[in-house]
Amino acid sequence: MLLTNPALGLMREEVDFKDAVETFKFNDYVHLGALEKTSDVTMRFQVAVKGKEGTPFEGGSFTFTLDIPPNYPFRPPTIHCDTPVWHPLVDSSTPAGRANVLFYLYPESLQPRHYDEAIPEGWTPQRTLADIIQALINIMHLLPPHWTSLDCINNEARDQVIADYPAFEAKAKEWVTRFAKNDH
Questions:
Q1: How far, in Å, CA of 28 to CA of 37, rounded?
Q2: Phi first, then psi: what are they for 168, rounded to 5°?
Q3: Helix (H, G, I), strand (E, B), or coil: what is residue 8?
Q4: Closest by CA position to 32, among listed 66, 58, 79, 57
Q5: DSSP 33-86
Q6: Domain that holds residue 88
Q7: What ranges in the chain are assigned the alpha helix state H?
Q8: CATH at residue 108
Q9: Quick check: 150 and 162 in contact, CB under 8 A?
Q10: Quick check: is 184 in a domain?
Q11: pTM of this prediction?
Q12: pLDDT tens for residues 61-76?
């Protein structure tokens, strides 16, 4: 697989990032920060996803840090949600720099805590940063595919969704008010 674009002299992650910027440039729910070179990982950037109207996350802005490893695209970026959020697929107690978001692009060996083997999609080198950003939007906008009782990393939030959705919604909205009322 070709990892660089010889005509532009760009690495695959740089090409993917430029494509993601182009893909989401008119999306009012997404803001991409600058792609930065770092000492401990090849590249890093942040994505802010605004909560969608009609969801418990409405009015919030949620920042995710994506650390792109040196062997990208053969290994996926590590994704950390920097904004505390009450969500079944985000573990806000995980320290920065470690994956704390569960979604359907990762293979089983890289899942933060649990993986439902029935999920057909996983990370492959054909996936792009735009795929990851779209998955983050889907998570924060509660778009399909929805989580099941087996594929969550915040079990308390999952249990609330199943047993008492109004309580989940109230707590998620409270966390939005406390932690996610920032403009990006």
A1: 26
A2: -60, -50
A3: coil
A4: 66
A5: ---EE-SSSSEEEEEEEEPPTTSTTTT-EEEEEEEEPTTTTTSPPEEEE-S---
A6: 4-179
A7: 12-24, 129-140, 155-163, 165-179
A8: 3.10.110.10
A9: no
A10: no
A11: 0.84
A12: 999 999 998 888 888 8
